[in-house]
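Reopening this ticket.

The earlier resolution said the output was attached, but the attachment link was broken on my side. Pasting everything inline this time so it's all in one place.
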Amino acid sequence: MAEAAADSGGNGDSGVSAAERGVAPIKTQYCTTKERFHEYLVANKQVSQETGTRDPDGSEPAEPEAKKIRLEEKQEENGETQGAAEQPHAPKRARGQNKSRPHVKPTHYDKDRLCPSLVQDSASACVFGDRCRFLHDVGRYLESKPADLGPRCVLFDTFGKCPYGVTCRFAGTHLGPEGQNLVQEELVAHCTLLPRVRNGLDRALQQQLRKRQVPFERAEQALRHLATPEQNSCDTQPDLAGHGAGIPPSSPVPTCGPLTDEDVIRMRPSEKKRLDISGKLYLAPLTTCGNLPFRRICKRFGADVTCGEMAVCTNLLQGQMSEWALLKRHPSEDIFGVQLEGAFPDTMTKCAELLNRTIDVDFVDINVGCPIDLVYKKGGGCALMNRSTKFQQIVRGVNEVLDVPLTVKMRTGVQERVSLAHRLLPELRDWGVALVTLHGRSREQRYTRLADWPYIEQCAKVASPMPLFGNGDILSFEDANRAMQTGVAGVMIARGALLKPWLFTEIKEQRHWDISSTERLDILKDFTHYGLEHWGSDTQGVERTRRFLLEWLSFLCRYVPVGLLERLPQRINERPPYYLGRDHLETLMASQQAADWIRISEMLLGPVPPGFVFLPKHKANAYK
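Inline output:
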């Protein structure tokens, strides 16, 4: 999801009026200038080493190179750099994705990596023998291994055993005097009885997918049915028993193999399990930031329904581990769904059948709202709203092979002034969709306008009796209450949860929570613990946790504490001016510079590796 900021006015400079459009109204005693803000943070910082995100003189954070290039190109296109006699304009802040950001993922995380056969305590020797390219000398590995990042290992304390052994960055907790990996037997026995994370990709299935050996009988049957024009009526059921169009019902039917109940009796759409989530708080599927550790945080604060990040159906069919990781479900997620993105009926239907028999979910959602070019230009996401035939075939095909309810998430339309949702909703209801979520913006608008809730209200009436959830600009319980008054069945929360995940608690308790900086740091600490559990406690897992933490911090810095606001509540399209918080930590969390986000990550995950650079996924999330 491309998170461009919706600030209609103001460029983040200090001294702006509290009433200025797009700027959060902060009490005068807390407002400050940009220079004083950074001077305050620098005065409270003891620099241990350069992180590469500041200018050489250390006076001011440097603009990321990729962002500066895009800014200069934009200025040249607009003619801002032509003619010295023109009145100088304030520099435009970059928007959209940092598509040209450097590929900073390291090819290896350790200079000398230990052989996995030693890390996993395998009883047998390494199968590669002398040809193995990894180290087999534990002593030599420990000599070159960086210092531990902390005194406690989350995995050892939680599960009784750390599977990363000597490679763990907190290994001092669970290594014996001779370098052996210690185990808490009682805790391990207790954890074996607890439910674990589900929906992983089995190795055997992955091999079958890569070799294209997985059968898709139901999907192929559904696709054949969709390809027959005379059977494309809503009231016509597929020929499940194999009767041909020209064969009378009384004639014998040629069969292959034994006839089972599944050949004759198929679950009708009306017999599917109902998705009854009306009135519940729905956490949106958020690309990059909506990972499993973040969803655990939101569940703890009261989110009722969660959904995995957008997964591309073709990548799932190819058995890509990174894509299947988006489908994982934590035991705390009691109502959980996955979101699929695709542009063609065959791949979407086959992927739906695959997921139907391999993972445990309560619903499957089709992404018809993704606005990014990479998806849109291939005919997926928002583009499906203009491809009605393909859209219908995808919905009908996926719905036919699923045993769980099918939902759709969509926008108002593609173009800003041409709304399509109200026309598509009755058709979606007839095609068998159980629930639709409508984001009150078009693809062209992105986040430059407020969500159109009057239009969502109109669509809720058109969609009835199919439940419609509304989405857009909910950052307080007042916003949620106004949204529910439009007649929607419930609300989906996206950016609001990124800015303050305790929003779910505020809505349920109907109050504003003036959360302290210490409490917010504890939330981040819990996220890092969940991240180490999910991604691992070795160097690779720690740095992956750090990357996702930094992406989240690029949203958290927009939150303004309740006690500092002149007017409640804060609106989602209002950017905070420069201000000094009630303590140093609160001020540090308000910084919009990546260098300060890195400082916060170092409080939780230790120092960053040498040469570490972080550039946010979205340009609007790091500006001066």
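Reporter confirms the inline version is readable. Residues 517-535 form the longest helix (19 residues). Confidence is low (pLDDT under 50) at residues 1-18, 46-72, 74-88, 230-251.
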